[in-house]
């Protein structure tokens, strides 16, 4: 089995991260691909979030190579289900179909529920994104049909504006909201 590690971002990840964000198939369910400048700004933001909180959207390392990212994030837009903690992911196309996104996302969910003691983690995507929806279901997240929404960062009338909401809940009675900081996790 391939080794899989969630870790802080390295400078050496930027080139592959930028290439991933400019792949039209990877970015099919986003409004557009990202320019090199947009990828750099995103890269810096992802790294900074982990530095500040001790957790976030981690780089996924598969056998020593940057494969994509997964982890936890606090959305900045306003919706009926915010504030919340979401789980998200994006992988380079050559890593699709190998179960790696599921393995990585399970680690992130475990961290959220076991270490941060979150009572709920959500995930959302464009309604048309069948691959991500299937992954959400493999992770045991449940579709909250009442929670589906129009993503406020996507223009009215855009095919990607309708989003679906999935929820995962902790099984532990001691779950609570996340602490402001947790130790960096690299398992």
Short description:
By secondary structure, this protein is of the alpha+beta class.
Strand order of the largest sheet: 1-2-3-4
Terminal CA distance: 15 Å
Order of helices and strands: EHHEEEHEHEEE
Biggest sheet record: 4 strands, antiparallel
How many domains? The number is 1
Protein structure class: alpha+beta
Q: Determine the mean pLDDT.
A: 92
Cα Rg: 16 Å
- Beta-strand percent range: 15-25%
How many strands appear in the DSSP assignment?
Answer: 8
CATH superfamily: Gcn5-related N-acetyltransferase (GNAT)
- What is the global morphology? globular
Low-confidence stretches: 172-187
CATH C-level category: Alpha Beta
How would you characterize this protein structure?
The chain has 187 residues and is α+β, with helices and mostly antiparallel strands. The protein has one domain: Gcn5-related N-acetyltransferase (GNAT) (Aminopeptidase, 3-Layer(aba) Sandwich). Helix content is 27%, strand content 24%. It has helices at 14-21, 36-53, 100-115, 130-138; strands spanning 4-7, 57-62, 65-73, 86-91, 120-126, 142-143, 149-150, 162-169. The strands form two sheets. A four-stranded antiparallel sheet has the order 1-2-3-4, with helices on both faces. The radius of gyration is 16 Å and the shape is globular. Mean pLDDT is 92; it is low at 172-187.
